[in-house]
Amino acid sequence: MRSVRVLSCVAVLLSVPVAAGAKEDDGVSVSVAADLFGKYVWRGQNIIDDWVVQPSVSAGYKGLSGSIWGNMDLTGQTIDDGEFTEVDYSADYSNTFPGQDVLGYSVGVIHYDFLHTQPDATSEVYAGLTASVPLSPTIRAYYDFDEIDGTYVQLSIGHTIEKITQWRRDCYCDAQVGASLGYGTARCNNGYFGVDEGALNDLTLTAGLPFCIGKWTIRPSIAYSTMIDHDIRAATARSDNFWGGVGASYSF
Question: How far is the C-alpha of 78 from the C-alpha of 94, rounded, in Å?
Answer without folding.
Answer: 35
